């Protein structure tokens, strides 16, 4: 070793997270060993893959293993691997900071978590397992050397805000993490982690399935006068869980394997164990999580399926095996007939991989459909967490559109507490109803209070309430379900009257059209820059006006979405509908008839249009002008 040492500060958020770890935010401290072993296993997998890709990399992969070393007198525990190792810069970037999106949100939720279980679930979503070492250690040392490099790096910290980096002239290839353990404390669930049987029990419970041997040298007392001996034992069975028949695997084993591959701390919502035989053999062990990761909608969010070939790890985040809308699915696919040096580019084009992907997707969707039918409570949990992502599949995956529509759920005006599916909506449709009515908006309250809903509420028609951004797109793309057209309450003409009601009201409607013809023409001219037409409304019962689109127009929300993505779309003018029975509208008509077509009346028309925009949650083109006109009018009333 040399003395080229440097003391650095943790990233602010990493420092806060370490503080939470040090002060024991959850009770099950045993998981620190699972996380260190999992990191070591990943490093071994990466070294084997690197040796296949880079034939010039001078490394020995003949005995990849993990070693656990204990010094009871010094009270240290070391987890050592001979894997890929890290460079100095990697140590700083991986351990000195938390390079994950949403870390501030994680910390906020950790502080607000009311119980230990909630805290550990949140931590798991970020895969910050290395930091768990500070729950049981007063000080942590890490010595590492990246494969192919000559020098190594030593990292050391007490978790109190700073860490020390020292460059080493030499170090073993791989990584060794040494924990200077805190004293055992039964009341704080802090066990003696130098005890052989404590370590054996933790490894058996959490890491028995790790594909590499986990070894430990143990001392055996001599019998009679014989001296004590030592032997190296392998603590794990190394049996690939996905290769065992489902009947031989306990649920707890599935749950621990899920936590290993996902770095989640909660049990999965559902486990899918399947095998493909025939021309292309593979095994798959997939999991649907209980909670959505915080980066589910982040462009940098990670996929969750690992690819193995003949039990040899090939790659993380294999996007060729699972579509983007199922990116939350975690697990392993072990293909028997692929080449070990297959690349992402080749995978995208491989016919066998595409066939496996189709089968995996159908199995996941069929599992969700079974949950919906047989376990509605668990399905509701699934949909609340992953529904917005699944609906993206209606845009991406036309082959599975039918089953996606079957598993889709949405809020509706029928019951504020329960979701409905499209099949249930169609079964409840009124006699003669040909359309499935829906409304989109930011939230349920905004939609229910929208003027567009008035006629539907008055007539007792059920309306689907869609509040996810993707809803604006998929309803347009799908168009219909079970022969029924999906129709927005904010588009086109609305006529919910029966034939008899229509006949009885025809005379009144004709009178209104005649009375309002001049006003409609004048308002169309005054508001020509903002609307394409002003017409009488059949959808309003209490509001004076609303703004609607033509049947095939882009919605304002879609316009904003396209522009946010950098796509220029023409500005769509909409239609202003006015309620001929509202006092404001009748007063406006009388004022116009009496020759009041000046600036004051034009401003009233502007206010009417502006309030209609605001009522639907829209944006005013010139908010300051609207506020000034409104203030002037209010002043005149005092």
Automatic annotation (TrEMBL):
It comes from the Bacteria. The keyword ATP-binding applies. Residues 28-185 form the Histidine kinase/HSP90-like ATPase domain. Pfam families: HATPase_c_3, HSP90. InterPro entries: HATPase_C_sf, HATPase_dom, Heat_shock_protein_90_CS, HSP90_C, Hsp90_fam, Hsp90_N, Ribosomal_Su5_D2-typ_SF. PANTHER family: HEAT SHOCK PROTEIN 90 FAMILY MEMBER. HAMAP family: HSP90. Belongs to the heat shock protein 90 family. This is Chaperone protein HtpG. It comes from Micromonospora andamanensis.
